[in-house]
């Protein structure tokens, strides 16, 4: 059965704060949304620990995936109306690609786990790999529905997500420097965090896009809308995604799971009865898709609540710090001041905190815009503008604004430590000299060498 044979007699509408309406007019798409695998995304926060910083950021990956689908649907409609395929090799839009584009857009984040990036770091999982497994494994509801289109359709959808699909127009719709994924999460995350950084003229960007041979380009008349998008993305990373409190809570979450894993692996030294059953397959590095799908943010939170009563002081303390929002403090360091970190860890250890669990370094950097370099391990598809005579020019060649940020990483690297190390009055007077010595290394939220400051 063809995708077009399953058109709904009456379209379904999802009300959405970003796009107004998300239109579903095909039974395949509706059935994919209604699978347990997709509904699970309602229970996975889009921004993980950012809700500890921006209290409104409680939105889910479910809403984001619907948004990416809707933007991709609008792209397909616009391309088909204005750039329909007419003859072989014309580089225009072939609407036979609509099914694979829409399904890939909807399912692109299907494999995200709870607090996905932290979870991946501890348990060595890969959400993109799991997404492909959920799409291609015969036992999943997702695969069964996709096979209604054709036997090889699941593998076509998966190949879009891993960037190997033959038609690069479809790939760039979902994954490029200006794609449906980024355009939705910038607007959505901006809305739910109560900020304006991620707002840009989405309608204008969509209406200056055009399919070309080998990918997607933009009319040069829309250059300023694309510039606005790139700067908005930069600001979102610096102000939202790289926020030091959100990163501090990620560090606590990371160390909390790391401690739980250590206790599980050393039962005789700690708690022989420590058996968090839903996490044990991950502690043992032998998990199935069903094990993975059983996890969501709520499951982890339930375990964290249990762990607040653990006999292990480190586990219980980290669980309380995470659940009750007691973030670590942090200070920025550079290549020069990094030499002070061993001394700072020593002071923290002397003050009674296990430095393995109560300190961390975290660097967060992002390229606002990256020109294509085939020598890179993961080369970016650069943004091409179409000039009036039909020739192409790369964006940073004509935009002084983009050129000023192109290839330049923005962000910082931070050392995280317990907030207690900065407090002025301590109950235990014996530690006061240690705290005072530690504080000599911190100036204006930066790590400094006190000998050089004198």
Automatic annotation (TrEMBL):
<dbReference type="InterPro" id="IPR045509">
    <property type="entry name" value="HD_assoc_2"/>
</dbReference>
<protein>
    <submittedName>
        <fullName>HD domain protein</fullName>
    </submittedName>
</protein>
<dbReference type="InterPro" id="IPR003607">
    <property type="entry name" value="HD/PDEase_dom"/>
</dbReference>
<dbReference type="InterPro" id="IPR006674">
    <property type="entry name" value="HD_domain"/>
</dbReference>
<dbReference type="InterPro" id="IPR050135">
    <property type="entry name" value="dGTPase-like"/>
</dbReference>
<dbReference type="Pfam" id="PF19276">
    <property type="entry name" value="HD_assoc_2"/>
</dbReference>
<dbReference type="Pfam" id="PF01966">
    <property type="entry name" value="HD"/>
</dbReference>
<feature type="domain" description="HD/PDEase">
    <location>
        <begin position="57"/>
        <end position="195"/>
    </location>
</feature>
